[in-house]
Structure formats: C-alpha cells, structure tokens
Amino acid sequence: MSLTKTALVCGAGGFIGHHLVRRLKAEGFWVRGVDLKFPRFSRTDADDFALGDLRDQGFVARVIDRRFDEIYQLAADLGGAGYLFTGENDADVMHNSATINLNVLQAACKRDSRRRSAARSPRRRPAARSRSGAMASRPALFSISMNASRRRSGSCARTGPVR
C-alpha cells in the first residue's frame, strides 16, 4: 500500500490550477490534472493529465476512478471577458459551472474521497462593474467535505464559503 498522498486538480490547465499542481507536486503528492486543455505557457507537472469535459458525468466518473486524498475543483465555464461580461451568457455560464461542480461532488462522494475543496463557480456581484458598465464576474469559493454523521451513507455536506 502506497503512503503517497493523491490529489485531483480539476481545472489544471488554467493559471491557478497549473500552479496548484506544481505546489502539490512539491509537497510530495501524486497529482492527476483534468481540464479541456493543457496549461498554455508551460508543461504540466501532473503525474497524469486527462483532457475532457467535466460537464460529462461519464468522463468525471472515469477521472475519479479511485479515492483521492484531496480534490480541488477549480474548473468553470469562463470563456473570457467578451463572453462573461455581456450578460448574454449568464444562464449558460451558471448552468455549466453548476453542472461541473455537481458532477465532481457526486463522483467524489461515491469514491469516498477524504477532502474536497475550492469548488468555484462564476458569480455575478451587483457592486462589481467594468468600465463599460457591464457586470463583472467573481469566483465564489466553497469548501466541501464529508459530513461525519453521513459518511456511512456517502452523502456530502457543503460547509460554507471559504474566506
């Protein structure tokens, strides 16, 4: 039995996810990265990297094929400023990001992963506006962990916003 800790980083092709993979590797983790794309500016340090769409439940089930010690869900439908700030794509952005979060959470619960954290979804804040007057998007971070009293049934509980 291996004593190496394992981590899954969803959104590992993005700026934050790529750096998180690097940090986890430096801490001695075996890391699987997942994203629609590889990191743009440098090679990934992940031990395994799966390319695919986390909106697809089947893909998520194949990626979360074991119990991970830690799962970081950073993937979201961001699409760039021209896509986000117009207000025309808000429903799609929220739907896609919620689908990703729910798929990852469901698969992690089924595998009884020890710790899941940093799930994020774009969220519009009325106080944040760009120079053009369009609404700005800000990631909402949540810490998600197994509820000890429900661990036997495999259900999870949202523990609240991370500040």
Annotation, overall tally of beta strands: 7
Order of helices and strands: EHEEHEHHEEE
Percentage of residues in DSSP E strands = 25-35%
Number of DSSP helical runs: 4
CATH topology, by name, is Rossmann fold
Main sheet strand line-up: 3-2-1-4-5-6-7
Which CATH-level-2 architecture? 3-Layer(aba) Sandwich
Tell me the helix content: 25-40%
C-alpha-based Rg, rounded: 16 Å
- Main sheet: strands, sense, barrel: 7 strands, mixed
Q: CATH superfamily name?
A: NAD(P)-binding Rossmann-like Domain
Terminal CA distance? 36 Å
Total domain modules:
1
Low-pLDDT regions = 118-130, 133-155, 157-163
What is the class in the CATH system?
Alpha Beta
**Structural class from helices and strands?**
alpha/beta
Average pLDDT number: 76
Global outline: globular
Any overview of this molecule?
It is built from four helices and seven strands. The radius of gyration is 16 Å and the shape is globular. The chain has helices at residues 15-26, 57-63, 81-84, 90-110, and strands spanning 6-10, 30-35, 48-51, 70-73, 115-129, 135-146, 156-161. It is 27% helix and 32% strand. The protein has a seven-stranded mixed sheet, sandwiched between helices. It is of the alpha/beta class and 163 residues long. The chain has a single domain (6-161), classed as Rossmann fold, CATH 3.40.50.
